[in-house]
Specification:
Blueprint: H1 5-34, E1 42-43, E2 46-47, H2 48-79
Antiparallel strand pairs: 1-2
Helix pairs in contact: 1-2
Length: about 90
């Protein structure tokens, strides 16, 4: 199957948003944990590193999933490849 320019543009946007969101995931998961000892300020009554490890990362993960689903739904509608209503 030969990809049209429209297909290539769609996948380019898909890969770009995936890379950005994976970058955010990487920072929240590994970079914050790596520098946890240096993040010694208080956030909502807890040390920031503890809060990110216990709650903050989960909030960011849910936000990433929500944003990706919303973005891809809009992208599907824009390119006419949305799922049909059944």
């Amino acid at each position: 199957m030969q990809l049209t320019e429209k297909h290539k543009e769609y996948w380019s946007k898909n890969l770009r948003i995936t890379a950005i969101l994976l970058g955010i995931w990487f920072v929240v998961t590994f970079v914050v944990a790596w520098f946890a000892r240096e993040l010694s300020f208080t956030f909502m009554g807890w040390p920031f590193s503890f809060w990110v490890g216990a709650q903050g990362a989960l909030v960011v993960y849910v936000w990433i999933i929500w944003y990706y689903a919303r973005y891809m739904n809009n992208l599907d509608i824009e390119y006419g490849v949305e799922e049909g209503e059944e």
